[in-house]
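Quick one, probably user error.
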């Protein structure tokens, strides 16, 4: 659900204007949309930057929200959405090829009574999906780092501090530590 509040939307646009200009997005007609969600998050789709109301309510300083906007501007300026779509297509192809190779090995193992070959085929077929997923995760980590670096560049170009971003990173790290969740370090 979208939240409409003229004052908050105008303030977010004021925060974003110099960042978008520094990112080369000043005339690209990017909409800022407020989302009624209590989590501290923001994301982009196409030419829209979505900011959760939870981020606005949780942020202790405007610089935290400006850092979030700068990060998301990094995704837009970097064309990350289209690149991710391309990467997903490659991963899908990789998984299909692995499945076909695995199926071929299973059939060959079955026709030659080679349990080892059939078992290897099962492993290849199953491993292809995992390999594709890890490829996507590695790619997304790279894009997140790129967006973070771009954000720092935009903040520096506009004479703003990166401390809000650091505070946000610390918030995420603390929340993850307190959750007790066991996270695969690769993910």
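Nope, works fine. Designed sequence:
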């Amino acid at each position: 659900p979208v939240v409409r509040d003229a004052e908050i939307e105008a303030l977010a646009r004021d925060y974003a204007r110099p960042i978008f200009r520094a990112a080369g997005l000043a005339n690209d007609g990017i909409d800022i949309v407020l989302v009624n969600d209590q989590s501290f998050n923001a994301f982009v789709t196409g030419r829209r930057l979505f900011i959760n109301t939870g981020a606005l309510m949780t942020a202790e300083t405007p610089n935290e929200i400006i850092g979030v906007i700068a990060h998301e501007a990094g995704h837009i300026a970097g064309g990350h959405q289209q690149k991710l779509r391309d990467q997903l297509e490659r991963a899908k192809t990789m998984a299909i090829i692995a499945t076909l190779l695995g199926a071929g090995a299973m059939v060959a193992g079955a026709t030659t009574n080679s349990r080892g070959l059939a078992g290897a085929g099962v492993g290849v077929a199953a491993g292809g999906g995992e390999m594709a997923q890890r490829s996507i995760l590695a790619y997304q980590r790279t894009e997140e780092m790129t967006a973070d670096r771009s954000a720092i560049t935009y903040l520096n170009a506009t004479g703003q501090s990166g401390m809000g971003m650091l505070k946000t990173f610390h918030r995420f790290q603390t929340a993850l530590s307190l959750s007790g969740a066991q996270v695969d370090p690769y993910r």
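The helical segments are 6-22, 53-58, 62-77, 80-111, 115-157, 163-179.
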